[in-house]
Amino acid sequence: xKHLIALLTTLALALxxxxxxxGDDGLHKTPWMRDTxxxxxxxxxxxxxxxxxxxxxxxxxxxxxxxxxxxxVFVIPEIEQYIEDNFFVVQINMFGDLEVTDFDGTTxxxxxxxxxxxxxxxxxxxxxxxxxxxDQKANEAAVxxxxxxxxxxxxxxxxxxxVGKGYDSDEPFQKYHARKFEEQNG
Length: 186
What we know:
Elements: H1 2-14, E1 21-22, E2 28-29, E3 33-34, H2 40-49, E4 53-59, H3 64-73, H4 77-86, E5 87-93, E6 99-101, E7 107-109, H5 110-117, E8 124-127, H6 138-141, E9 144-147, H7 152-163, H8 173-185
Parallel strand pairs: 3-5, 4-5
Antiparallel strand pairs: 1-2, 4-8, 6-7, 8-9
């Protein structure tokens, strides 16, 4: 009986934690996501006022890679807390109809804005600097982009690289990640 209880406990601990619930639109919803009017200039101003970085996540219903991120990566306590502490997160539905206003003032439904940005995959995460020109599109203004699902260390290192403004240094993300990964696992 002890072995059965130990086995069941081990299996229960191995199951992924589903911290994000699915919304009516079929997208994962987390406490650290913001419900905004999706005006990126306003969202950037609010992020700056809170001392956070703007992060825009393009996702779609039924995306297995979005599910992987929400159920396996974003639920890691260190990553979840880091996002909550450092990022103002806005979610965009790749096939949604809500209006999004880009930094250059262009207003389109989500699905058309995503096409305008050239995003082909989900999740697709854009990270922004504190200042964006009024003539820029989001995909042009982003200091970094994560197109797809990544594991724990790549995600955590990208978040840290963005907050630390690694994009302004001479060390590209790939070298930063390799160095940090070695430190974290070495």
